[in-house]
Design brief:
This protein is of the alpha+beta class and 272 residues long. It has two domains: 2-162, Fructose-1,6-Bisphosphatase, Chain A, domain 1; 172-271, D-Maltodextrin-Binding Protein, domain 2 (3-Layer(aba) Sandwich). It is 35% helix and 26% strand. It has nine helices and 14 strands. It has a seven-stranded mixed β-sheet, sandwiched between helices. α1 (2-24) runs antiparallel to α2 and α8 (208-215) packs parallel to α9.
């Protein structure tokens, strides 16, 4: 069952990415939500495309751009999609390409499948329980994008590299947010310099930070600032299948999902 779900989720992410790029190449307008976060037509079109593609499975969807669903309804969902159709809207508005499509499947409050796709850079990361975590680099993936709906999962897996890819390095690498570096995160990173001989800090936008930890490019990604469930669910699924984890800083355990309050606690994504 996970194979079918994973295949369709990869297709949905790529088609949503195409919708985003259609807007990215125009003189788009930017609106702002009540929390002052930006939203564009690309967010909305990508959300619509993902929901359309996943609808045949009959699994409810919790999307950043969807209608706010009351917890009294959601609490009965043992299985749901958690979707951020455009993660990194600030980066989208800056036109630096550092944004992604995030789609996760969660069951009994834990992610079991995740896809993260970069529409501009064309890297795609995906994972499912019992199948593993993988990356297809842009050079191999670009020829498949226009015909993604006809590409089999077997073909995709044959081109993919199993995560982690990089398993050793001389420096301890910490990845940090491009637009959301808090003072608490900065202090935590400074403290790491006391326990590791060489600490290198790299920055990027969106959920690619979690992918870099899963891939082995980075050792950890601390986030001591606000995020929502749809920001982390797909990344956590990929981390879990790549000998890494996303740990709730408050509980010391794996982040759980479909909570009453969708705002995440601080977290650390880290290799074992």
């Amino acid at each position: 069952m996970y194979q079918l779900l994973l295949h369709k989720t990869i297709i949905a992410a790529v088609l949503a990415g195409n919708e985003i790029l259609d807007v990215y190449d125009t003189d788009f307008d930017v609106e702002f939500k009540e929390d002052k976060s930006p939203v564009t037509l690309a967010d909305k079109k990508a959300s619509e495309k993902i929901i359309q593609e996943l609808e045949p499975f009959g699994i409810p969807v919790l999307s950043e751009e969807g209608d706010e669903i009351d917890y009294h309804t959601r609490k009965h969902w043992n299985k749901l999609w958690i979707v951020d159709p455009l993660d990194g809207t600030k980066e989208f508005v800056k036109r630096n390409g550092e944004f992604t499509v995030n789609i996760a499947l969660t069951e009994q409050h834990l992610p079991t499948l995740g896809v993260i796709y970069s529409p501009v850079f064309k890297d795609i990361y995906f994972a499912a329980k019992g199948i593993g975590a993988f990356k297809i680099n842009r050079h191999q993936f670009i020829p498949l994008i226009d015909s993604i709906e006809t590409v089999s999962l077997e073909e995709l897996l044959s081109l993919a590299e199993k995560l982690p890819i990089i398993t050793s390095r001389e420096t301890y690498v910490v990845v940090a947010s491009r637009s959301h570096m808090s003072s608490e995160t900065f202090a935590y990173i400074e403290n790491l310099k006391l326990t590791h001989k060489q600490v290198e800090i790299v920055s990027t936008g969106s959920s690619i930070k979690m992918c870099w930890v899963a891939e082995g490019i980075a050792d950890e990604y601390p986030r001591f600032g606000p995020t929502m469930e749809w920001d982390t669910a797909a990344g956590q699924a990929i981390l879990q299948e790549a000998n890494a984890a996303l740990v709730d800083y408050k509980t010391g355990k794996a982040m759980v999902y479909n909570r009453e309050k969708l705002l995440n606690n601080w977290f650390i994504a880290k290799r074992y």
